[in-house]
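Hi both,

Apologies for the delay on this - the queue was longer than expected. I finally got the adenosine-5'-diphosphate-bound model through. Below you'll find the protein sequence and the ligand SMILES exactly as submitted, and right after that the structure tokens for the full complex including the ligand.
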Amino acid sequence: MSRVVLAAADEELALRVKHAAEGDVTVLPPGRLPAEPTRLFEQLVDGELPDVLVIGPMARIVETLALASRLDVQAPGISVVMIAEPTAELWQAAMRAGVRDLLPPGLDVPDLRTAIDRAGSAASGRRRVLRPVAETARYTGRVITIASPKGGVGKTTVSTNLAIGLTSSAPQSTVLVDLDVQFGDVASALGLVPEYSLPDAVHGPASQDTMVLKTFLTQHPSGLYAVCGAESPAAGDGISGDDVSRLLASLAREFRYVVVDTAPGLSEQTLAALDRATDVVMLSSMDVPGVRGLRKELDVLRELCMIPAGRHVVMNFADPKGGLSVRDVETTIGTGVDVVLPRSKAVPASTNQGVPLLQSGRKDPMAKELRRLVSRFAATPLMKPGRYRAKHRAAS
Ligand SMILES: Nc1ncnc2c1ncn2[C@@H]1O[C@H](COP(=O)(O)OP(=O)(O)O)[C@@H](O)[C@H]1O
Ligand SMILES: [Mg+2]
């Protein structure tokens, strides 16, 4: 019998699902479906992950699909069953999001039972196959690339704060790479005066040996390591996509988190960083040109199949008087927004002082939202074998 969690369902559907799954069903309270699986499962009292997540028709379809695509990556051992009017279009979108089954809202108990059983056995089958992969993958750190079509939208602000935040969540865990090869300003945002910079880290002896590479990193007082940008635009121009790829692979063997700040748009170096990334933070200012640009960039990356498994959409410079709502943005870009950063006077001051907001410990609404972003990465991963029940361990 599978462990089932039911979200976004009314009482009548909850009853049918309970009958169908013969009791082992946790019904989550109605409310907005979080895009992030950790947030959804935080609501489970015993913290045990389900085999099957059934999402009822009370959730918005984009939200269900966004959550399903995340789960597909973060916790492939959970089967997602969606209950909604099954049109051909929705089938296609659902399959792409990794939804296991799409069921019409009126389905009777026996048919529901068959579908839940099928989803449950798919989940345990997948888990058996996936376990060894997840275990070998553990030895490579997460590469988080911050990208945006435009400049001045906060990439450096976000990447420096994310890196500082991750360092404080796990000391010595993080390296920040400045891939804005011509006009990088990570060093200035962190108040660092680097002895070595990006060209030193990718050319010469550092490119051959990870131990040597570590001696070319700049250390920040917080314990964060950094590869700062080239001294001149010309020096930065000599960095190829292959250089970037090699550098990030070496750093990921040494650090749990490799945070990559990039130049606006899709340069050769940024594409290489996206290619190596486990996660992308797509950033945009919360205004019409910014959001349109973001949409175009997402479209291009989708076409190139270059959106990494973890995708995080962040809006910056949010302003209640700006006239754009998160919902408007989501409709335009066709996917959920994960974090909204407010416009804050504390940010330019922190940039100018070379002290990221999360380092200064200032209480500010922006700092709070930045911490929310950090916790998306610092949280315990969902695929933690110990959290599945003993019977699954026995099965694998
Ligand atoms: N939420 C915010 N509120 C106010 N100012 C911000 C905010 N985010 C970034 N800034 C400021 O905007 C400017 C550009 O940010 P930056 O991070 O350098 O952008 P990018 O790296 O995308 O070019 C900086 O001066 C920074 O201090
Ligand atoms: Mg920048």
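Main takeaway for now: The radius of gyration is 22 Å.

I'll put the files on the shared drive as well.

H.
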